[in-house]
Design brief:
Elements (H helix, E strand, L loop, with lengths): L1 H34 L3 H21 L5 H11 L1 H27 L4 H32 L3 H13 L2 H20 L3 H5 L2 H24 L1
Helix pairs in contact: 1-2, 2-3, 2-4, 2-5, 2-9, 4-5, 5-6, 5-7, 5-9, 7-9
């Protein structure tokens, strides 16, 4: 009985530690994104979040978060800027496409072919953008190389793709229904779920390579 109480208390403390860490990381992400005038800050701040979430998942380390975040932000400023340009460019392209489709007469071709194609393309962009971050956090290199590798990993990881899309929808509805979560979990809860599932995908790939 005492052992069960100890285990329950230990689990509660771990969950609480994660909640506090993710909330703090999200505040840092928002702050550093604003420091970089959003466009220049978004990419390196997002990479910093993924690197630190990955590190905590692997090592359980949550010390000196601000110092680590600032260091990664400075180191990844260039690659983060490239990621921002690609992510914002893809988002702008999809937004314009959806606006054009909305303005067109709603024929059967639009409803049965064009809109589903745009939704599939949107899902692909979300998955590949997420895997790009995960691959870059795992292996480094360049964002362009991570984009190529992330695309191929996404193609062979259908279950991971489904989890990532559900995580994205969960994040969207959480902020829609509880706007206050934007300050504390607008990115980090998504980063936690997706980094956890991508770790599984990357580990499976490593195992396959070793068995060949």
């Amino acid at each position: 009985m005492e052992y069960q109480k100890y285990e329950s208390g230990n689990l509660f403390m771990k969950i609480l530690e994660w909640v506090v860490t993710l909330a703090y990381l999200n505040i840092l992400w928002l702050g550093f994104t604003l420091v970089g005038f959003i466009f220049f800050g978004f990419g390196p701040a997002t990479i910093a979040v993924y690197r630190l979430v990955r590190k905590k998942l692997r090592q359980g380390d949550s010390a000196y978060i601000f110092k680590q975040f600032r260091t990664i932000f400075k180191e990844e400023f260039k690659q983060g800027g490239i990621y921002t340009a690609m992510a914002f460019g893809a988002a702008a392209f999809l937004y314009v496409d959806f606006r054009i489709v909305q303005a067109l007469p709603q024929t059967n071709v639009i409803q049965l072919l064009v809109i589903p194609a745009l939704l599939i393309l949107t899902a692909l962009v979300i998955v590949v953008a997420t895997f790009t971050l995960g691959y870059y956090a795992e292996y480094g290199g360049t964002i362009l190389n991570a984009l190529k590798k992330g695309f191929w990993v996404a193609l062979i990881s259908p279950i991971s793709n489904i989890v990532i899309l559900h995580a994205f929808l969960f994040q969207f509805f959480m902020m829609a229904y509880i706007p206050a979560t934007f300050l504390f979990f607008s990115l980090t809860s998504y980063a936690f779920i997706t980094e956890w599932i991508m770790n599984k995908a990357f580990n499976r790939i490593k195992v396959r390579k070793k068995s060949l």
